[in-house]
Amino acid sequence: MAAKIAKETNAIQRGTGEKVGNVLMSVTSFVCGFLFAFYWGWLLTCILLAGFPVMAVLSTGMAMSMETGFKENMKAYSQSSGYAEQALSAIKVVHTYG
Question: The pTM is what?
Fold first, then answer.
């Protein structure tokens, strides 16, 4: 039991360890980039910020379409998984009585 818990904890640590660092680095780069941009070229930064709502709307639309596609894929996978399970069950029955 203890070995299994240690193994699962290690897997979680490996899975999240690198991602947490990447997220932290990305957020820091984003904030520092905006600070430097406002300091050195505030006018250009203000002009580029005008396009930020358009990018946000497009990103939201893209995320919604990807979610819809993901749901359709999961539905198809679950259906095919059911078919495969039925086929394997039938093979087991035939093999048992064959």
Answer: 0.47
Do residues 45 and 34 make contact, with C-beta atoms less than 8 angstroms apart? yes
Phi, psi of 50 (to 5 degrees): -65, -25
Q: Identity (one letter) of the amino acid at 70?
A: F
SS (H, E, C) 21-76: HHHHHHHHHHHHHHHHHHHHCHHHHHHHHCCHHHHHHHHHHHHHHHHHHHHHHHHH
SS3 98: coil
What tokens does 10 get?
């290690």
**In 10 A of CB 37, how many CB atoms?**
15
Mean pLDDT of the chain: 86
